[in-house]
Amino acid sequence: MKVFVTACLFAGLIVLPARADIIYFKDGMKTICQGKAWEEDGEIKCEYGGWIISYQKNDVLRIVSTIQKKKAPPADKKPQVGHTTPKASAEKKIKSPRSKSTGPVFYDPRRPAQYWTGINSKHKSYKKAIQALAKKYKSTPQWVQAHMGDSNDLAQIHTNLANPQSNQSVPVAQPAAIKTAEIVFYNPRRPFPYWTGKNSKHKSYKDAIQSLAKKYERSPEWVKANMGATNDLKQIHQNLRDRKAADPAG
Q1: Three-state DSSP class for 103?
Q2: CA-CA-CA-CA torsion for 43, 217, 220, 241, nearest 10 degrees?
Q3: Strand partners, 39
Q4: 6, 44, 110, 232 from 55: Cα distances, Å
Q5: Crossing angle for the helix pair 233-246 and 205-216, nearest 10 degrees?
Q6: Backbone phi, then psi, for 63, in 5-degree steps?
Q7: What residues pair up with 23 in beta bridges, in sequence order?
Q8: Cβ(225)–Cβ(209) under 8 Å?
Q9: Phi, then psi, of 142 in degrees rounded to 5
């Protein structure tokens, strides 16, 4: 199970520690550790907030170790003999990241607390997360659902709520999902939150995973291990097709 964390705050900037290793995943996501990252027993470990978080090694593309730069000496002052300036980053594998995400996501079914409304505000249910946002913005849960938008990017959700596009009254009924260019796997504002296809919609994460398992003739555990952390349904199917082609025997 993946647990995705990041050291970016949606309401401001956070100062990275002297060392903050960055883990880039094959599906385009990344995790910024609050310390070092290392390989152990076939897994990639990450220090974060006093925790040790584990990731599947097969999901990791590369690890970048960033070290805070020291201030350069004045132009008229030569550095001491034998002194070297540490490198800003030491890459263990040279390849530019494909990640488009720079912050935490609102929902990730692979986290123990699936819904996040902040780095220190994590919830196991959609209802609790919406209530937390309603309390923060001093409004009703219905207002939050109507104005939070369709993005899974937590920073974007807070931007939407801090600067709502309209002040119209909010209907009691849950608003329909906003159409986007991509079909997303999960959208809690849809009547059927989980989609595995345009004509394959499900009420629960478990049912959606079972549907994918049936389609690709693999176990639910195999699907969860290989679908990636993306919410783009097209990319999820591509990940599963690629993995099945690479290992036809399963």
Answers
A1: coil
A2: 50
A3: 44
A4: 14, 5, 11, 21
A5: 40
A6: -125, 130
A7: 31, 63
A8: no
A9: -65, -40
